[in-house]
Structure formats: structure tokens, C-alpha cells
Amino acid sequence: MSSRYHEVYESWQKDPEGFWAGAARDLVWSKPWDKVFDGAQGVYGRWFVGAECNTAYNCLDRHVFAGRASQPAMIYDSPVTDTKETFTYAELTDAVATLAAVLVKHGVKKGDRVILYMPMIPEAVIGMLACARIGAVHSVVFGGFAARELATRIDDCQPTMILSASCGIEPGRVVKYKPLLDEAIALSRHKPSTCLIHQRPMETATLVEGRDFDWAEAVAAAAAAGEKADCVPVAATDPLYILYTSGTTGQPKGVVRDNGGHMVALHWSMDGVYGIEPGEVYWAASDVGWVVGHSYIVYAPLLRGCTTILFEGKPVGTPDAGTFWRVIAEHKVSALFTAPTAFRAIKKEDPEGSFIGKYDLSHFRTLFLAGERADPDTIQWAEKMLKVPVLDHWWQTETGWAIAADPVGLGMLPVKYGSPTVPMPGYDVRVLDESHQPVEAGKMGAICVKLPLPPGCLPTLWNNDQRFRDSYLSEHPGHYATADAGYKDEDGYVYIMARTDDIINVAGHRLSTGGMEEVLASHPDVAECAVIGIADSMKGQVPAGFIVLKSGVTKDLAEIEREVIQLVREKIGPVAAFKLAITVGRLPKTRSGKILRGTMRAIADGETYKTPATIDDPAILDEITVALKERGIATAD
Ligand code: COA
Ligand code: AMP
User: Fold this and answer.
1) Where is the Acetyl-coenzyme A synthetase N-terminal domain (predicted)?
2) Per-residue pLDDT band at 5 (split at 50, 70, 90)
3) Which residue, 166, 232, 368, 578, shows the most beta carbons closer than 10 Å to its own?
């Protein structure tokens, strides 16, 4: 089939508002929009201004009324607890309406914020949708973050209520969430009035009298009394959720997602990008704590009337490298979306793909990869093993859906390894030089999107229009700067090569090296430090911290290194995967005092590098090389 991509992209270019108005017609609006796009509203304009809608209604009730009541909406598959549970659209709607009644009873109103700090269990999805149902704004915090990170988010979005669970399950250990939650509330200036705690069988959390309530008891009481909350119409421009993501400092950015534009963009993407029909089974193997989980575990599959899979496990070790194939076969999954790191983990454990033959994968059509650079080796291995198209696509927490992809629903374009393919309708992607001019094909530059951003992308940062302007819009006037650098080729394919800031990507998780440096610098023996991301064959990148000790410190170096590693785990969380701290005598710097992190990374990754002309003392690079070699890290000589 030849692709309709160019035709559809041009139709969007000719009439962006007509394009998105057309896409919006598939959804239910309680009040139509006055304007599809109003450039005079918000920071760079707002979508579907004047309209009212409810995202949860469009995800659930709409399908119940349209005849999908008995179709599975969500399948919870948890190899770590040996549990499987299916919720039909009717059951999920009911569960969401009942929990929503509990939230209302505890005083949660339209516009109030609710934080979720939850493992991958159905209650997390039900909690998110219950907020959406009553117009409350959810903010999910990934379970791998430490108490201090949670406290920062509590202070920034000031939730009325927190939804949590007694524990999460990581291979080989139970992660007790409740002590972390209690510590976060103790650390935060803002105190939520209520916490609703889901007690899991493997860990019973102690509840704080008057503040904490048992989830199951509250829901059972509401169900017995027949209490259900109705969907509350909200403005299309009202926030649906806030999702914090790493910025260049320890203070994360609260990415805001609206209701109307988000529904329209995600609904379009299920067809245009993923080529998925209503009724099909779609699986995003991620976590609801990340944007992939928000968009493609929860909202998009349900908006499309699909069955979504909620998988509580890992690609390997739960129990083996065949888990993904088992889930695909058992639930007749049509498309899987995950991060390349998951496939690198499977490939490492089962390079011959010996588990694949054990399962019937005949329903499986497409594998989608995103979240980090998809290396050609991994793509080719997956293609060979699965014998289906393996498609890289590129996006960010900020955009909420693909900026560039190979649009299956419009007809696939040829795959070029190393490229996530072409810009999606809505995105006018430009590669700019330092003077804001487009560079020619094949030349590297800053990858930007000409404003306005399409529906679904962030309209601003929570309570911080100025930080939004400063972080994304000021560098290249009239454009949104993605903070990714790369190029476009003659065919318009986009290539994402590097971040332009200090964000690193560890196992598909986005982390700030600046945030880690803040933690290292807080150690009493550390005078200065630098954290860089170094290449890792499984996780893509892992952080490496270099510390210079204060003069006069006599403590054992190994002891200090262990302490700073522990400090990052305590302050940021295990997700930082910070396991390498190296004490050095000095850090390489320019004469003006700027630490040469790029050169250090090149040395650690074994790349050939040029000694920067501005370096203060070139001999320090040799010291860094020796220190890395001592830790067994391949370096460039
Ligand atoms: N709660 C508590 N701790 C968590 C956690 C959670 N929800 N998620 C991860 N962690 C912990 C892990 O247990 C690990 O701790 P450890 O240092 O004690 O081993 C640490 O955080 C780092 O986790 P991770 O980077 O995920 O490494 P891993 O070795 O546990 O797993 C993969 C590696 C590749 C299997 C895993 O990252 C994976 O499946 N990734 C692909 C899918 C994905 O999550 N993508 C996200 C964006 S699409
Ligand atoms: P996150 O906000 O966590 O989704 O991380 C977004 C960042 O991850 C992007 O800005 C890129 O740096 C990187 N990224 C995501 N997808 C890809 C991809 N397909 N190829 C290369 N980098 C990617």
C-alpha cells in the first residue's frame, strides 16, 4: 500500500484548524468550541477554546453507550503477583465512578490537584480516570522516586489528596511506599488533607488517624450505598493532569496537559500513528508514572475503544525473557510500544530468541519503540525475531504524543535505521542554527517545532508561564525548542542525535545530571563535582559522578564514594541508577571555569576527541582517563 502520509501532512499544512476540527468530531463534547485555535489565549495560543468536555466520559461512558459495555477495557497482568484481572468497559466505568464518589466525599473538587504515588495496579488507572471524571487534576509520581522528589511535587502542585498503595514490587524486593509517602509529607510545606491507601496483600501500611483512609473500605462503603459521581464538564483548556519531568536543575518541570486538545491528538494518533482499530488489544509496556503510561496505557487506548494492558513486571526475570511474548499471545495483542532498553534486556538474556517460538504471535502486527534512541542493532534483532515492522518514533513528556513517527494508519513509509521517520501532522519541525535559520538537509542543528504546537502538547508549565517561556520558547523566537539536536535528510526524515541540555536517558527514563550534581555537592566532604551520562549497552546511558574532595579530608575514598551513591538513591531514588562515583584530584575546566563535561563523556565512551582550545590544564584529561580505566571503563586514548 502506498502511503497517504504526504497528502495528509499537506492537508494539515493547508488548513491546520480544519484538520483538527475534523479529528475532534469523533469525540463527544458537552459544548462545542468557539474557536478551534485561538492564538490570543495562553502563552502561544490554546486549542478548542470555548468547548466543554470530559476526558473520562470519552474514555469510558461513551463506549458503554455505544455497545462496548462487555468488551474488555483493561487487562491487568501481573507476573510479580501471579494475578490477572479483566475489566470490561462497564466494570471500569463503574469502578471509576465509585472511586470518584469517594474523592468527592473527601472534598476533592473540580480543579483540585490529586497526587498518585502508585505501583502498576488497576487502582492507579482507576484513580487517574476518577480524577478526570470529576475535573480534578491528577499528578502521578513514578514509584522509583524518593521521598524528597515526591515532596517537591507536593509543594509545587499542592494536592488536596494523595492516592497511594502500601507497596510496589521490584524483582526480589517489596518497595514500601507508605514510609516514603509519610516522609514526603513530613518534608513538604504543603500538607494534603487526605490520603487514600490501597493495602496490598504483601504489605500492610500503618494509617495515620484522621488523614489516611483505607482504599478498599472507602470504595466498598460507596458501592454499598450506590454512590457514583457523574462526569463533570470541564473547559477543553482546563488541565487534565500535571506530569513532572526532569529539568536542568533539581526542580522538576510540571508539564500541564489540557483536556480537549489532548483527547483529540491521542485519539487521532491511535489511528494515524499506530493503525489500531477500536476493539483491538494495545499494550504499552511502560509505567503510569511516565508520559508513555499516561498517553498509551491509559488515555489513548481507551479513547479509541481498545483493550489496554496494564503489565506489572519487567521484560526479563518475571519470570523469564519470554514474558513479553506470553502477554502478546495470551491477550492477542496487536501492537506493543516499549523502550528499546526493554528489547536490549531481552536480547542480552535470550539472544537466539528461544522463547519466541513457544508462543502464538499471529495477532501481533507492529512493535513501536520510543523514549530513547533506538539503535539499529536492537531494531534489526527485533525485526528478525518477531518478523513484524519495528518502528522507532520520537516524542517527549512535553508533547504527549509523537512528533515524528512512521504513520502506520496512513500507510508506512520505508524504514531508515537510526531515524524515527517523519514529522506528524501538527508539527512543523525545523532544524535551526544558532542564528535561528533553518540548516540544509544533513546538517546538525537544534530541532525545533514552529509555533503553535499541535493539540495535546503542553500549553504551559504548572503555575509557571515564565519558566515555560524561558525553557522552551525564548531560545529560538517563534519556535518550541525540543532540547534535542539532530538533522533532517533530503527525504524529510528526522534524526535525533543528542540532547542540548544536561538531561540523560537511563533505561528510557529521563534524568537530570544537574539534579544529581546538586545531591553530590551536598555531601560534606565534596568540594566540587560533575555528573555525566556514559554509554551503557543495556540502559543506553548510565550516570557517572566525578567528585573532588575538600582539602584536608582524610576519610577513606571508597567510603565517601559509597556514601554519595547512597545519597543519590535516598534523595532522588533508585530510578537514578547512580552506581558509579569516582574521586579525582581536579575536574577539567575551561579557563573561564566551565566544566568540560562533553569532553569527559567522549573520553568515557571511547570516542576520539579534540582537546578544547580553551582548556585550563590539558593534563587533567589524562587523570580522568586513568581514573576511568581503573574502573574498567573503555576510554579513548
Ligand atoms: N518503584 C521502586 N523502584 C523502582 C521502580 C518502581 N516503580 N522502578 C524501578 N525501580 C528501581 C529498580 O528496582 C532498580 O533498583 P536497583 O538499583 O535496586 O536494582 C532501579 O530503580 C533502576 O531501575 P531500572 O532503570 O528500571 O533498571 P532495572 O535493572 O530494574 O530494569 C529494564 C531495567 C530495562 C528491565 C527496565 O528499565 C525496563 O523494563 N525498561 C523498559 C520499559 C520502561 O520502563 N520504559 C520507560 C519509558 S517508555
Ligand atoms: P521523555 O520526556 O522522558 O519522554 O524523554 C524525551 C527525550 O527522550 C527526548 O527529548 C529525546 O531526547 C529522547 N527520546 C525519546 N524518544 C526518542 C527516540 N525515538 N529517539 C531518540 N531519542 C528519543
Assistant:
1) 5-59
2) very high
3) 578
